[in-house]
């Protein structure tokens, strides 16, 4: 009597040796599609039952194919790589990735495809045909496997379980892709550079960056995209469609990824942990950006100068300094901005909106960065430390200005005189002395000022606001400079020493 192990070996041996009994009539398309009996010449007509599970099959060849899933037997070897396959049709499909053979041609757009079912799906993209209707909702799909995948969202069925963690998936292909996060495998290689990818879709998307291919055209504007999913997301900007609804509040999102990220604001989840410090992030992209602060990596290089940046958004912003492009126009005045955030912040000067409220006093601010700077007046925090002396600063701009006192760097030159400045804002202030411009207008009288700080000081004389409070007496001041001077009356500090003589010598 055979043991279970011997029985397994027998089945695997049968699976290998019986391949000669299976004749492939035509290369079978296998991708979550049902195998049709007319694609195979059946040698046995009655039901064949698997001895290791309760499944049964109409032919011996299909039973043999199935039994390989129990024993992990992969007898079909690629002659160009070390890939092996359990089915000969999968080997045939794989070999096409080497030969570039795409036998299924679509004559309306000239595209060709590896597999017939992909060609059929592509044809339906042109025709809009979606014959596969869900019986539980009103959604319809162009391909049967997409319907099957969708139906699992109704029943919560995730039959494909990862054996290395507790994650489960509704599709086998998703499990295979997930496994690569454990193994680090990247089997899909770009033919034009040395990049490799864990998913074929990512490789295809990347390759379009080499050829500039954007096959997905919006029918409402002239934009085109390299991915169908990107086109669908774009079209929602025309329709205003936000199909992804949060079940904890009334917010809705056009992208599922936006909803997932939003959910983390409710749960506080930060799944992306830095392996060099204790910081964690709700988004993987933020983790990647943070890790560059450890490595010093600046992958985004300006093609017009030698500057490089941690983030792509910073590069785009910088490139506008070369082009002078200000695409973000205020609809209430004639000002335009190079950054969307700058426009949003500017529009608050029209509405009076100050959404960032200090939790230690009653002050509110136009932007988050101003609130962070203000908080430091409560905490005394000076995070910006000079590495050439012992001075520290609460604001980065003051820190940068100070560092230039060590280097004597004045990169901002006036084009009307020979003066140069260490900061762009100082140059702008100086240029007002040439133009006489006073763009900061007080709304309660007719006075105007060339600098915002002068307007703020003037406003305090009207409101009697003295935000600088000394903690050793009850004096308050409208300006930081007066506050510092007053401190010295308590400390006795006299920082300005004459170089003509030393009083202590008399």
Could you tell me the radius of gyration in angstroms? Answer: 34 Å
Q: Give the helix level as a range of percent.
A: 40-55%
Measured distance between first and last alpha carbons: 116 Å
- Strand arrangement within the widest β-sheet reads 1-2
Mean pLDDT: 76
SS-derived structural category: alpha+beta
Strand fraction = 5-15%
State the low-pLDDT regions, or none. 1-45, 500-506
Shape: elongated
Helix run count = 17
Q: Characterize the biggest β-sheet.
A: 2 strands, antiparallel
Describe the protein in words.
The longest helix has 14 residues, at 4-17. The radius of gyration is 34 Å and the shape is elongated. The protein has a two-stranded antiparallel ribbon. A two-stranded antiparallel sheet has the order 3-4. Mean pLDDT is 76; it is low at 1-45 and 500-506. The chain is α+β, with helices and mostly antiparallel strands and 506 residues long. The protein starts with a helix and ends in a 15-residue tail after the last helix. Helix content is 41%, strand content 13%. It comes from Meganyctiphanes norvegica (Northern krill). May be involved in transcriptional regulation. Pfam families: zf-C2H2.
């Amino acid at each position: 009597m055979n043991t279970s192990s011997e029985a397994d070996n027998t089945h695997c041996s049968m699976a290998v040796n019986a391949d000669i009994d299976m004749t492939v009539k035509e290369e079978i398309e296998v991708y979550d599609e049902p195998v049709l009996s007319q694609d195979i010449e059946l040698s046995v007509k009655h039901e064949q039952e698997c001895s290791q599970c309760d499944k049964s099959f109409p032919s011996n060849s299909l039973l043999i194919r199935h039994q390989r899933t129990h024993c992990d037997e992969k007898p079909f070897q690629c002659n160009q790589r070390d890939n092996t396959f359990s089915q000969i049709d999968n080997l045939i499909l794989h070999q096409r990735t080497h030969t570039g053979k795409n036998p299924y041609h679509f004559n309306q757009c000239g595209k060709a495809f590896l597999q017939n079912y992909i060609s059929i799906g592509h044809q339906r993209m042109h025709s809009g045909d979606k014959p596969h209707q869900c019986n539980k909702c009103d959604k319809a799909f162009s391909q049967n496997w997409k319907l099957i995948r969708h139906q699992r969202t109704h029943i919560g069925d995730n039959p494909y379980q990862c054996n290395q963690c507790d994650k489960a998936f509704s599709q086998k292909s998703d499990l295979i892709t997930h496994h690569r996060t454990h193994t680090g495998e990247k089997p899909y290689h770009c033919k034009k550079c040395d990049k490799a990818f864990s998913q074929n879709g990512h490789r295809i998307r990347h390759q379009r960056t080499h050829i500039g291919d954007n096959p997905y055209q919006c029918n409402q504007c002239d934009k085109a995209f390299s991915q169908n999913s990107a086109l669908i997301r774009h079209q929602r900007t025309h329709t205003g469609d936000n199909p992804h609804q949060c079940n904890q509040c009334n917010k809705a999102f056009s992208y599922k990824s936006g909803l997932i990220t939003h959910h983390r604001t409710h749960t506080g989840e930060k799944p992306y942990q830095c392996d060099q410090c204790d910081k964690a992030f709700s988004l993987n992209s933020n983790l990647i950006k943070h890790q560059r602060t450890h490595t010093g990596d600046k992958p985004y290089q300006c093609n017009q100068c030698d500057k490089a940046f941690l983030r792509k958004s910073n590069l785009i912003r910088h490139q506008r300094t070369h082009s002078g492009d200000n695409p973000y126009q205020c609809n209430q005045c004639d000002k335009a901005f190079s950054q969307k955030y700058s426009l949003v912040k500017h529009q608050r000067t029209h509405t009076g909106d100050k959404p960032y409220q200090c939790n230690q006093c009653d002050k509110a601010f136009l932007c988050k960065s101003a609130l962070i700077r203000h908080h430091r007046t409560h905490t005394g925090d000076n995070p910006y430390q000079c590495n050439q002396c012992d001075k520290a600063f609460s604001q980065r701009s003051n820190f940068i200005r100070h560092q230039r006192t060590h280097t004597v760097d004045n990169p901002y030159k006036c084009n009307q005189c020979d003066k140069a400045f260490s900061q762009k804002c100082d140059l702008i202030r100086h240029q007002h002395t040439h133009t006489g411009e006073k763009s900061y207008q007080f709304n309660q009288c007719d006075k105007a000022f060339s600098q915002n700080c002068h307007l703020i000081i003037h406003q305090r004389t009207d409101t009697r606001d003295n935000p600088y409070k000394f903690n050793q007496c009850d004096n308050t001041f409208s300006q930081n400079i007066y506050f510092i001077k007053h401190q010295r009356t308590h400390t006795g500090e006299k920082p300005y020493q004459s170089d003509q003589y030393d009083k202590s010598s008399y």
